[in-house]
Amino acid sequence: MAFEELLNDPVIQKYLHELVGPTGMPVAAAPPDGEVTDEELAEELGLELNDVRRALFILYENDLASYRRLRDEDSGWLTYLWTFEYDSIPEQLESEMHRLLDALNERKQYEQDNEFYLCGQCQLRFEFGEAMEFGFECPQCGSQLETMENSRLVDAMERRIEELREELNITDETDADEVTDA
Ligand SMILES: [Zn+2]
Fold first, then answer.
1. Does the keyword tRNA processing apply (predicted)?
2. Which domains does the chain have, with CATH numbers?
3. pTM of the predicted model as reported, rounded to 2 decimal places
4. Which of the two ends of the chain, N or C, has the fewest CB atoms closer than 10 A to its terminal CB?
């Protein structure tokens, strides 16, 4: 099997699992050395050919696999020879984490910059401006809107942001610029 070291990483396993799903995972998790056909994979892994093809196509769309076509001279049949290209996974994961971090920072800012009101009946949330427009009454059920504490949500976001920063080795000195540039 190729890329064994990469595939031992639970983060990478989870990443692949999210891409191809449980049915595609046997394909994604055991890339052979060199080229392989979809039929060979299906037979080797005891999977439906369609499931194998689906997984391969998802990997292809995410730049994690490539193929070349061979035409059989006699029958005219096309054979697809697949190669797994996992070298870029760590890089891809890292840029995805940067994107997530940016989004979280933005969302946290939004939560901190705004005041929110809640309808306890409908569990609908309104920004201050909206709540004021509705006269602090729920437009759906007419209940009184109440101020909503979101500090627990902000705390949870802060923890996740801290985790991501640690995983990405972002120190305070490298801070904001690098995060927004990524
Ligand atoms: Zn309501």
1. no
2. 3-84 (1.10.10.10), 90-181 (no CATH)
3. 0.67
4. N
